[in-house]
């Protein structure tokens, strides 16, 4: 079937395709699964490559696109941004084997108006929780969901705490996706000299998570497309899996969008 060619198995391989495994998990025919996902969580005019990219992210984080735990946000000028709904974020947290619960604390001013929400995220392998505070003045947007500001700010605090505690990357909430999709050109007039890669101690090999974090940090400091291209060359062959490289690709795409003012195709 043409629509699923991007991630269907080949005749030479007996290994089930990613799409087939996801369809089996949903107890659906593979063609029906692909058609349902394309019609419910993908923007019109999307490509097979964009569909494949979203399915890779969904599989990596074990998110179900059928119930819209993850979906594609259409970007201005084309392309997609992978969005995880609050149900998806809660699933990510509660299903993580190291999760040991989370709590919220709310701060209000003298008149009782909401100021901030703090989320404490507990891990079974750490003695202290990860604590993140989100402030209403920084987060609130003029959209319908934000009329329930207490709930929305709790969501924001949980999402950011989850990122710090468990290292979730390459995925965004809807507010973040909207901002990325509408990015303007913020390239500085005078760029700094090309950056050098962060030094990695020879005696302590990096884990895949550390390699991804190093790439994200380096990309974030690039101010020109030439700098970004030079940075990418350092991470093209560093022994990561396809899914791990996809996370680096998302970080690269996001910084390229910041530099050029356009979100590239996934």
What's the gist of this structure?
The chain contains 10 helices and 5 strands; from the N terminus they run αααββαβββαααααα. It is an alpha+beta fold.
Q: Give the uncertain stretches in residue-range form.
A: 9-13, 184-191, 262-266
Q: What is the residue-mean pLDDT, rounded to a whole number? A: 81
Strand tally is 5
Rg (CA only): 20 Å
User: With helices defined by DSSP (H or I, 4 residues minimum), what is the helix count?
Assistant: 10
Largest β-sheet summary: 3 strands, antiparallel
**End-to-end Cα distance:** 21 Å
Strand order of the largest sheet: 3-4-5
How many structural domains are formed by the residues? 3
Structural class: alpha+beta
Helix content: 40-55%
- Residues in β-strands, percent: 5-15%
Describe the global form.
globular
H and E string = HHHEEHEEEHHHHHH
Element layout with pairings:
Elements (H helix, E strand, L loop, with lengths): L17 H8 L4 H12 L6 H13 L9 E5 L5 E5 L1 H10 L3 E10 L5 E10 L6 E6 H4 L9 H18 L7 H8 L26 H14 L3 H9 L8 H19 L6
Antiparallel strand pairs: 1-2, 3-4, 4-5
């Amino acid at each position: 079937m043409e629509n699923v060619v991007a991630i269907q198995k080949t005749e030479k391989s007996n290994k089930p395709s990613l799409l087939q495994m996801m369809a089996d998990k949903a107890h659906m025919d593979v063609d029906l699964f692909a058609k349902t996902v394309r019609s419910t969580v993908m923007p019109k005019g999307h490509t097979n490559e964009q569909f494949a990219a979203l399915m890779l992210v969904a599989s990596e984080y074990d998110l179900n696109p059928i119930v819209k735990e993850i979906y594609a946000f259409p970007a201005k000028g084309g392309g997609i941004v992978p969005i995880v709904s609050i149900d998806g974020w809660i699933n990510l947290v509660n299903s993580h084997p190291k999760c040991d619960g989370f709590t919220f604390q709310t701060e209000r001013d003298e008149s009782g108006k909401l100021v901030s929400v703090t989320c404490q995220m507990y891990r079974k392998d750490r003695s202290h929780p990860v604590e993140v505070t989100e402030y209403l003045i920084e987060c609130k947007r003029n959209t319908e969901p934000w009329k329930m500001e207490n709930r929305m700010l709790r969501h924001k605090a949980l999402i950011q705490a989850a990122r710090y505690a468990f290292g979730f990357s390459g995925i965004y909430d809807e507010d973040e996706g909207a901002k990325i999709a509408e990015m303007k050109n913020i390239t500085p007039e005078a760029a700094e000299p090309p950056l050098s890669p962060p030094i990695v101690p020879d005696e302590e090999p990096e884990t895949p998570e550390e390699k991804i974090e190093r790439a994200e940090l380096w990309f974030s400091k690039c101010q020109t497309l030439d700098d970004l291209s030079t940075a990418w060359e350092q991470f093209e062959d560093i022994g990561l899996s396809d899914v791990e490289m996809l996370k680096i690709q998302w970080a690269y795409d996001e910084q390229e969008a910041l530099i050029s003012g356009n979100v590239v195709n996934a």
